[in-house]
Amino acid sequence: MSGGVVGYTYADGNLCPSCTIGRMRANGIKVARSSDHEEAIRRAADQVGVDYSDERSYDSSDFPKTITSQQARTELTELPDGERGEIEDEKCDRCGKWMKLGEKSPTEAGLTRWVRDDYELPQALAREIARKLREWGLSHPEFITEDNVRQAAAMFPHDYVTVHAEGNPQRIVLMSMPQYDNDPCFYCEQPWEKHTFACTTCGNHVPADAPHRHEVQGNGQIKFREAKPTT
Hints:
It is built from five helices and 14 strands. About 6% of the residues have low confidence. It is of the alpha+beta class. It has a three-stranded antiparallel β-sheet, with helices on one face. A three-stranded antiparallel β-sheet has the order 11-10-14, with no helix packed on it.
């Protein structure tokens, strides 16, 4: 049995060791208290006459079958643009704990705080990103990449911000206008031209580089009076 046992398929569910033993006891199977769940379940098999070494000889509805660390997989089917992905872990169907990680995903508020602090994002944008990541099945920081966060950020309204070092000694400065061609947004890594601004004069949503009667010129780029980006 390769990879180490991280959970069990039992009673129509994939369960962590603790929930497996709890379900077994609820179903009338005596399982001794032990720090070694594999040994405790193996002994329980002997008591009920199950050949635990041959999983083909019994059904998982009657007695647990092992899930190894190599078998624990979660397929992601909700990623944008038809992308498919996979997490090398699996949640317990009963308690929600990740079998290999040994812990649950943070709450939406907890994931929002992680996204905000780890990627230095505004609270409102971090909240939207965290919600989208959870929709994609990426509910734990362990499984989230920077590309995931930037891709989600590009889907929601936010101010364009670029980051540059200035002065001597140098200091990091956040700027609301690009300083160079194709200067990417710090939040979503998209160029300034990809953002859309809401004109507070007429209420229309206008691409950043589109002509507009309420525009003013600044730094060679189009800048809107009191305008805030919406994507």
